[in-house]
């Protein structure tokens, strides 16, 4: 009997054109999301841009990590 290991992706690769805004969770094509883009300069994402699930976000002094249950982990740019 072997044990299964679930290893989440080390980084999530967002699609070329995200389906959803990663800050407000609304469809990316619905509006300009200028306020979201401004806020995202300082804040981590809150929603998965692929599936719109709420992300589990951890903020540390050196950056952040955001985990989607379906698409894995993304990290702040260094």
Question: How are the secondary structure elements laid out?
Answer:
Elements lengths: L33 H7 L15 E5 L2 E6 L3 E4 L3
Antiparallel strand pairs: 1-2, 2-3
Description of the structure:
The protein has 78 residues and is mainly β. Helices cover 9% and strands 19% of the residues. It has one helix at residues 34-40; strands at residues 56-60, 63-68, 72-75. A 3-stranded antiparallel β-sheet has the order 1-2-3, with no helix packed on it. A hairpin with a 3-residue loop joins strand 2 and strand 3 (72-75). The longest helix has 7 residues, at 34-40. It is globular, with a radius of gyration of 14 Å. The N and C termini lie far apart (42 Å). Residues 1-10 have low confidence and may be disordered.
Question: Can I get a quick summary?
Answer:
The protein has 78 residues and is mainly beta.
């Amino acid at each position: 009997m072997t044990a299964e290991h679930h290893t989440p992706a080390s980084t999530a690769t967002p699609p070329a054109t995200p389906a959803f805004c990663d800050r407000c969770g609304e469809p990316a094509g619905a509006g300009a999301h200028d306020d979201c883009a401004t806020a995202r300069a300082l804040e981590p994402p809150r929603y998965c841009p692929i599936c719109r699930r709420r992300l589990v976000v951890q903020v540390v002094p050196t950056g952040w990590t955001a985990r989607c249950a379906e698409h894995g982990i993304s990290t702040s740019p260094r």
